């Protein structure tokens, strides 16, 4: 007969238990964010990653099992991303006269992101497989995984790097823009969305609707630019 502890662990390892751990981790992150009055370092995603990482390690659950158990959360990432179009619709009038500069900035930013990631990794002694993994780091996670896979990189590592970069960008991005005296809310949103995708867009949306709307737009345009530019630049870089 199994002990109550064994039964509790079995429940925690079940798909429902792992889903619960994920939701509790994120809610804990939101609680920390509110308790710290929205401090930049108190990102709900960061807290959730720490909680889930510790939980699946203690429960001895491998990543494929966890990923399968939380498929429902991954599914809702798509609709959540589409929902970012709602604040953008409210800011549609602010796109007037801004479309061309925005498209140029996103394209140039994507090229700089790809080339700088590859060349920096090469200068630090990384092998070509890692360079291919880093190339699409500015895209959203699903796009980065697909591009990395087609490029011959390591998709799981690409996913980790994208999330990590997103968290770092959300934490230090706004203060960096303040330091550089970038005050145009459209430009601030575009900059954060281009490097910090969904995590950064969430942070900017919390601070200002215009910044959040343009961060969401930038996230989508950058993902599109990365998916189109990486295969072309790969012919030169590799």
TrEMBL record:
Pfam families in alphabetical order: LrgB (PF04172)
Species this protein is from: Nocardioides aromaticivorans
The protein's name in its UniProt record: Putative murein hydrolase (TIGR00659 family)
InterPro entries reported in the protein's UniProt record: CidB/LrgB
Molecular functions per Gene Ontology: hydrolase activity
GO cellular component annotations of the record: membrane
Main localization (coarse): membrane
UniProt lineage: Bacteria, Bacillati, Actinomycetota, Actinomycetes, Propionibacteriales
Keyword Transmembrane helix among UniProt keywords: yes
Keywords: Hydrolase, Membrane, Transmembrane, Transmembrane helix
Localization terms from the record: Membrane
TM region(s), chain numbering: 12-29, 41-59, 65-86, 98-121, 157-180, 213-237
Topology in membrane: Multi-pass membrane protein
Keyword Lipoprotein included in the entry's annotation: no
């Amino acid at each position: 007969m199994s002990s109550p502890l064994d039964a509790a662990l079995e429940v925690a390892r079940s798909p429902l238990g792992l889903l619960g751990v994920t939701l509790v981790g994120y809610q804990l992150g939101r609680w920390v964010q509110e308790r710290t009055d929205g401090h930049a370092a108190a990102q709900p995603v960061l807290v959730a990653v720490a909680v889930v990482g510790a939980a699946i390690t203690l429960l001895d659950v491998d990543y494929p099992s966890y990923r399968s158990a939380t498929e429902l959360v991954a599914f809702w990432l798509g609709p959540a991303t589409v929902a970012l179009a709602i604040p953008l619709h409210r800011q549609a009038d602010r796109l007037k006269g801004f479309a061309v500069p925005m498209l140029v900035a996103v394209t140039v930013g994507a090229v700089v992101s790809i080339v700088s990631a590859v060349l920096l990794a090469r200068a630090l002694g990384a092998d070509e497989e890692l360079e291919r993994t880093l190339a699409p780091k500015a895209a959203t996670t699903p796009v980065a995984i697909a591009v990395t896979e087609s490029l011959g990189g390591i998709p799981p590592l690409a996913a980790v790097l994208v999330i990590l970069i997103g968290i770092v960008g959300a934490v230090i991005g706004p203060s960096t823009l303040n330091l550089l005296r970038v005050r145009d809310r459209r430009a601030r949103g575009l900059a954060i969305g281009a490097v910090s995708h969904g995590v950064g867009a969430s942070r900017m949306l919390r601070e200002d609707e215009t910044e959040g709307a343009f961060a969401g737009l930038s996230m989508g345009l950058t993902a599109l630019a990365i998916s189109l530019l990486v295969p072309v630049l790969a012919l030169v870089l590799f």
